[in-house]
Each structure stands twice: as C-alpha cells, then as structure tokens.
Amino acid sequence: MKFAIDHDCHIHSHLSICSDDPEQNNERILKYAEDNGLRKICLTDHFWDESLPARCDFYNKQGFEHIKKALPLPQGENVKFLFGCETEMDKDFNVGISEKLYDKFDFIIVPTTHLHFNAFVMEKVLYDPEYRAYLWIERFRKLLEKDMPFHKMGIAHLTCQLMLAGEWESGELAGEKKYLSVLRLIDDKIYRELFASAAKKGIGIELNIYPFENMGEEERREVLRPYRAAKEMGCRFYLGSDAHKPAELDAAIPRFAAIIDALELKEEDKFHFGENN
Ligand SMILES: [Zn+2]
Ligand SMILES: [Zn+2]
C-alpha cells in the first residue's frame, strides 16, 4: 500500500517568533488537518530549554514556559493533535532539551541544517561549501551518538536551503543555489553510513523538500539522493510541512504527494509515534 498522507508532524504556531501570525493558531491548524483528512498532526514550535545555557536571542525567548501556552490542544473527531517541539543543536553539538522535559513532548524534532544561526551553531562562520558539508555530516553523526528517546524523535529538513542559503553572486558558480553545492560534496557512501545508523537508532526522517514543485530535474535528483539512501538503509519517514503560515499549510499536501511518488514510498516506510498516548 502506498504511503498515505494522513499526518503532518512539523507545524509551527504563532508562538514561534518567525511565524508571529495570529491566524496560525491551534484552531486553524486543526482545520487544515480536518480539511485534508489527516489523522495525526503535531505542533512543533521552536524551542530551547531555558534550564540550559543558551547564547542566542532567538531561542532565549522560546523556552518551555513560552511554547506551553499552546496547551491544551484541541482534538478533532478524527484528528489527534499532539504536542512536540523543534529544538536545536548548538556549535558544541548540545541539543536544546534536558532529559527532564522528554516526557512533556509527544515528539521532538532536531534540525541539523539550521546553519543560518551562524555563531550559535558553528565554531567558525564560513560560507564555504566544504565546511558546510562537514557540518551536515558531523551534526547528524553527533545527534545519533546521543542517548535520547529516538523512538519519538525526528530529524528535520535534511535538504533545507538554510545549510547555505542564497545565490552565488558571481564567479564560476554564478546562478547556482549554494545549498546544492553543499549536498554535491556528500557522497552516497556517507549517506548510507549515516542512514544505516539512523535506522538502527530508530529516529524518524522528515520528508520536507521545499520547494519541490519548482525544482528542475537536476535539483530534484540531488535533493532526493539522501532520502533514497535513507530508504535503502531501512529508515522510516514522516511528513512535515514546517508551515509557519496558513497558506503554507495548504500548499503542503500536493508537495507531500509529489515527494512520496518520487521516492515510491509505501506504508511500511512510515515512522510511527504517539499511537498509544
Ligand atoms: Zn527548522
Ligand atoms: Zn520548523
């Protein structure tokens, strides 16, 4: 059976500073799920545990006291609305959630590609594709080395353009998307090694390729390469729109469908969590 679009487990509310859109509220998010026949959705606002040291203004404002304002979450007749978070990994590879808070969340997402946070997430701020590729690999590897509840965790948007955003201004690579020059440096052997480890640890791999519908053939091939390796190594996948605005919620469904088709995913490739809560 084909991988069904029955969930979205990476959604921000207005509580995320980068959303700050009053329309992006619990009721609107639940409506999106109901309109599209989703059975499970998860709120994942940006989060850094205030009991841990942080050195970043963005996260200092988004501790547990802040994101728990979303609770209690409204439940739909056929929709389970779960509470999660999208935390962060800093430059010393610390993840922004302490053990005592694991139980507060149904799902914990860790992004390893938020490299736009510059000095907070990397030792030296270099706009060098080789350094970014090193960080892509190393941050992924360090996350898997942790003792964390991987059965209810996901790794976010692995092919996100934030790993090296923008266009080359000039030179040999003018017109190239920078993030692609990072992904091209990571060979299939490394992908297989990392995803074999991810499959063994049981962490979910997020399906989130933006903007997949606007990509040419070559870009698609490059962004699909890690997910193909993940599938080959037995990883399980979940859908995540990463929507910050209502319009982004509704745009997610056709994109999910296109990604599922491109990867030829089946129901058995799906990551499950929260079913017994
Ligand atoms: Zn993110
Ligand atoms: Zn997000």
Keywords:
277 residues; TIM Barrel; seven-stranded parallel β-sheet; 8 helices; binds zinc ion
What is the topology?
Layout: E1 7-11, H1 26-35, E2 40-46, H2 57-60, H3 64-67, E3 80-86, E4 107-111, H4 129-144, E5 153-156, H5 178-183, H6 188-201, E6 204-207, H7 217-232, E7 237-239, H8 246-263
Parallel strand pairs: 1-2, 2-3, 3-4, 4-5, 5-6, 6-7
Helix pairs in contact: 4-6, 6-7
The site of one zinc ion (ZN) has 6 residues, from loops.
Your description of this structure?
Helix content is 32%, strand content 13%. The protein has 8 helices and 7 strands, in the order βαβααββαβααβαβα. The model has no long low-confidence stretch (mean pLDDT 94). Helix 1 links the parallel strand 1 (7-11) and strand 2. Helix 4 packs parallel to helix 6 (188-201). It is of the alpha/beta class. The chain has one domain: TIM Barrel (Alpha-Beta Barrel), CATH 3.20.20. Strands 1-2-3-4-5-6-7 form a 7-stranded parallel beta sheet, with helices on one face. Bound molecules: zinc ion (2 copies). One zinc ion binds at residues 86, 111, 114, 156-157, 242.
Content of β-strand: 5-15%
Bound molecules: zinc ion
- Class, according to the CATH hierarchy? Alpha Beta
Distance between the termini: 25 Å
Q: In the CATH scheme, what's the topology name?
A: TIM Barrel
User: What is the assigned CATH homologous superfamily?
Assistant: Metal-dependent hydrolases
Structural class: alpha/beta
> Spans with pLDDT under 50 lasting ≥5 residues?
none
Look at the structure and give the mean pLDDT.
94
* Number of H/I helices: 8
Order of helices and strands: EHEHHEEHEHHEHEH
Total number of β-strand segments? Answer: 7
Helix proportion range: 25-40%
How much is the radius of gyration in Å? 18 Å
